[in-house]
Each structure stands twice: as C-alpha cells, then as structure tokens.
Write a structure and sequence with these properties.
elongated, mainly alpha, about 0% strand
C-alpha cells in the first residue's frame, strides 16, 4: 500500500474504503466481461456474426486491459482482490454478459453487449464523480477507462440501429486511453 497516497486521498475527502470497494467491483466486472465476451465472440458466427466479431474482440481485449490497469490502483489504496474466483465473480459491479438463449440471434447478442457497456459507463462515471478534484490518479484511470467504454457502447448501439456512433474500429494498438497505465 502507498500510505501517503491513501492519506492524501482520504484528506481530500474521499472515503477510500468505499472507493476501493467500487474499484474491486469494477475490476471484477472487467475480468468477468472479458470471460463472457470470449464466449460471445466464439458464438458470433455466420454473416451477421462475422461483421461484429472484430469489434467484440477489440472490446474484449480492452476490458482485460481495464482489469490489468485497475489492479495496481486497488493495491496502492490498501485494497486487495478476493482470494476466491467465485467470490470475485459475484462482487462484479455489472451483471454477467451471458450468452442469450438463442446464440444465433445476433440482435440478442448485441443487446447483451450494449447493456454490458452501458453498465460500465455508469460505473466509471460514478467513480469519476467521486474522485474529480480529489484523487487525481484514480480519476485519470477511471476517465481513461470511461472513454473506451463509451466507444464500446457506441459501436454496439450502432449495430442495433440506434444511430451512427461517430467512432471507428481501432487498428493496431488497443486501449488508446488506458495503455499509459499498462506500461
């Protein structure tokens, strides 16, 4: 634990234990989403599925990166991850992005994907609101993740016909906003 870091955040008026709890829940959501997106991506088959597969893969890898970026901050603030994977899964801040009953229904699959991203947008917006002007490092991390989650939501909502996203598929490096936390 970085004692001065934790004290500075506490002195700024942040309930650090509550913040760590939120970060652990978000880390659990990111890792479980990575897992469930793996299953979803495998089931994106046929002409409709193939058009979504590359974007789902980018979101999947970026969610794993979000998990990797969150873990150090949790420990810096004196927190830790649950020792049991089942417990970790069950504290997730977002419901599991499980395969729909009919895995060939691409629209149902997109609804699962977009709802997972919408939950993430809400979670990181909340962390940003708690830390803005008080915990600069956590705020920067949460805001960086939020930028990518907003793009993920936009990608999937576009496929549902909710309007153009204004965002394009990433080429090359993933996690353009979060990558600075992975170095």
């Amino acid at each position: 634990m970085a004692k001065v870091t934790r004290k500075m955040v506490e002195d700024a008026g942040v309930d650090v234990d509550h913040l760590v709890d939120l970060l652990v829940k978000n880390a659990a959501a990111e890792l479980t989403t990575f897992y469930y997106y793996t299953i979803l991506r495998v089931n994106l088959i046929g002409l409709e599925g193939e058009t979504i597969k590359e974007i789902a893969e980018t979101a999947r890898i970026e969610d794993r990166n979000h998990f990797e970026a969150l873990v150090p901050r949790i420990y810096e603030l004196g927190g830790k991850l649950p020792e049991n994977m089942v417990d970790f899964h069950n504290v997730s801040g977002c419901p599991p992005a499980k395969l729909p009953a009919d895995p060939t229904d691409t629209t149902a699959m997109l609804k699962v994907l977009v709802e997972a991203e919408r939950c993430a947008v809400r979670q990181y917006t909340h962390v940003c609101s708690l830390t803005a002007g008080k915990d600069h490092r956590t705020y920067d991390l949460a805001l960086s993740i939020l930028h990518e989650e907003v793009e993920h939501e936009s990608w999937f909502s576009e496929f549902l016909g909710e309007g153009p996203s204004g965002h394009f598929l990433r080429r090359g490096e993933t996690s353009p906003f979060v990558s600075k936390f992975l170095r």
